[in-house]
Amino acid sequence: MQLNIGKIDALFCAEQVGINLISKYKLKNIDLASGGLYAQKYAFATLKGNTQLIGLLNIHLLELQNSGRMHTLKEKWLSGKPQLQGWLAKNQSILFSLSILFFGIVLLMFFWNRTLQRLVDAKTKILQESEEKYLTIFENLQDVFYQIDLNGIILDVSPSINRFSSYERDELIGLQVYDFYVNPEDRGIFVETILKNGELRDYELKFKSKSGEIYVSINAQIIFGVEGKPDHINGAMRDITERKRVEAELEESREKYRGLSEAAFESIFFSENGICIEQNDNGERIFGYTTEEALGRYGTDWIAKEYRDLVMKNMLDGYEEPYEARALKKDGTTFPCLLRGRMMYYKGKIVRVTSLTDITSLKKVEEELRESKEKYQKDLAFLKSIFESPIDIIIFALDKNYCYTAFTQFHSKTIKKIWGGSISGSE
Q1: Of all residues in the chain, what percent are helix, strand and coil, respectively (each to 5)?
Q2: What does pLDDT average to over the chain?
Q3: Domain-located, residue 65
Q4: Could you list the residue range(s) of the whole structural domain that residue 348 is in?
Q5: pLDDT tens by residue, 120-141
């Protein structure tokens, strides 16, 4: 090539090699200038048309042949056969060993390359399957995966964002995430918190969607770059709008119940597996246990010992009919009570609600009625005995208050015993 562009004037080489080179590279600027110099047909070439140089080279080659120096030059520069053959003869065993070694190395490299290729193919297949699996998961996530930079620009978001915001993934990428906050002040709080802690768990926010507003729960983490500096934020969002709605309804129900509970005359207790988890103000006032003292105590701690087995059995059996027992205050005093329990769903749990009513006044009235009834029955029996007396004539009188003032002398002792007065009449 250097001869073709004129960097050198002539080139000696094997004739066949020269012919092949001229043909292969289409070297139209080169001619073969001479036939073979000896049996192996070496030749020289010059730039095409340089007849003066060709003639000069031919004259000098002829002089070398006539002087006998051509043979020396052939042996030294163009042949080298005798030295090469001698060296090969002396080092046949070494050459054989080297050939075997070379063949072994080539064979080893061949199998090693095949092994490497298999490993590469296997790894490539695993990576492809992993990528396909990741893409499948990414595209079918119920929660929303997102990635934002530290300036709040959305770098990526999973297609599931469409399920609860009605936005398409491509609509959001490149937008400022802070534009979707319902409450602008939440933006600064979010950034400050995650920069301080490095991550967030179950962080609730209110976002804008195409159809309105939604509540989301966020898990997020700052990802650091190779230099150890914060690079971007990876996170996942879950739509909790329905949960927040239910919580609001439950809270409203609890507020209604709380109002009714505090207005109730009964003591009301909530228990789970027999353990008190809440009481109303009336329960605290009547029994003397503060709410802090009441929580964690067994429900039977409010019951006199002789009734605890009955109360515990009814609690465990889910018995819901009213029944009587005796309540025990913190100071050790007891009073009669009416108990009624019911199982219900409260604060996400199945609990037992028990109302306890102080029936001391009722029991007092019942006792007075019982005593009055007994006295009435005695008086009735007495009057019956008078009227059934064997004496035919009974004389009695009533005063202005319609009280008996006189009976026959026969009944004077009985009358005096009953009414405490003396008989004023006569037979």
Answers
A1: 50, 25, 25
A2: 76
A3: yes
A4: 265-358
A5: 888 877 777 666 665 555 555 5
List residues bridging with 271 in a β-sheet.
Answer: 276, 352
In a domain, 405, yes or no: yes
Q: Are 272 and 260 in contact (CB under 8 A)?
A: no
pTM score above 0.70:
no
The H or E element spanning position 145 is: strand 144-149
pLDDT tens digits for range 57-109: 777 677 767 776 666 666 665 554 555 555 656 666 776 777 777 777 877 87
Q: Which residues of 207-227 are buried (b: 16+ CB within 10 A; e: fewer)?
A: bebeeeebbbbbebebeeeee
Angle between helices 412-419 and 360-387 (to 10 degrees): 170
Which of 418, 394, 421, 398 shows the shortest CA–CA distance to 408? Answer: 394
What is the Cα–Cα distance from 94 to 96, expressed in whole angstroms? 5
Q: Mention every residue, 6+ apart, whose C-beta is less than 8 A from residue 337.
A: 324, 325, 326, 327, 356, 357, 358, 359
**Could you tell me where the beta strands, DSSP code E, fall in 251-311?**
267-272, 275-279
Distance separating alpha carbons of residues 239 and 141, to the nearest angstrom = 12
Task: State whether 213 and 280 are in the same domain.
Answer: no
Residues 6+ apart with CB under 8 A from 318: 341, 343, 352
Phi first, then psi: give them for residue 225, nearest 5 degrees: -80, -175
At 333, the pLDDT band (50, 70, 90 cuts) reads very high
CB 295 within 8 A of CB 277: yes
Strand (E) positions, 161-274? 199-209, 212-224, 230-239, 267-272
Would you say residue 418 lies in a domain? yes
203 and 151 share one domain: yes
Nearest to 336 by CA among 288, 368, 304: 304
| CATH code: domain of residue 149 | 3.30.450.20
Residues pairing with 176 in the sheet: 153
- pLDDT bin (cut points 50, 70, 90) of residue 39 is very low
321 beta partners: none
